[in-house]
């Protein structure tokens, strides 16, 4: 074969190689566990994106949920120390600090124990990619909490099966260094009409409903969050005001805070925080830690 033909063949092979690379897409990015304490799962590139400044508050500022807070702290502490712990579903009223509690407990336990425990957030729309994430996490040199916020499933949504498989662990079993924490406004994760539809169209209705309801059962701990009392709401406001040094008379603070909750039609941790942000803005006071 002549030299010119060899050159032509080499060029054609290079073009073919480039075409294959384009079809295959970008290579999976390398994950650096030392890059941050918290990460966000990017399934397209199989990459854990570091979060340099996590959006979280001090655990001491989360009030009105003392019982569930203590349970979650104990469960997370056992996990960080290498002892058995449960997957957790935090469910209930909106704005009562479910997601804030997960992030704050993670930070507190990691700080107190000195264990480089990581928090990996999975977006709701990426639930179907959980098995791929587990493949990465099982070789992680640190304990990892996989966190899914505002978890729920709608009609014709089959991604819940991926979550169910991960919670069950399948043949291989859930990696010992991984826990799943999820928050939801629903105790059973699926809407009632979806379960009723399954019941009305199934050959064995009771088994169809059991299939749906059993998803929540696969979480070892259910932590319920309920609407807070006026006393708890005012305690949240007092805690924020003291922490951020807002110099306001307590009686005036409470009156202003109650008026704010009336205009919002609700009392919750989220409403208390929104009031504090408004108050700090009016006082020209920065809320920097």
Automatic annotation (TrEMBL):
<dbReference type="InterPro" id="IPR027417">
    <property type="entry name" value="P-loop_NTPase"/>
</dbReference>
<dbReference type="InterPro" id="IPR008533">
    <property type="entry name" value="DUF815"/>
</dbReference>
<dbReference type="Pfam" id="PF05673">
    <property type="entry name" value="DUF815"/>
</dbReference>
<protein>
    <submittedName>
        <fullName>ATPase AAA</fullName>
    </submittedName>
</protein>
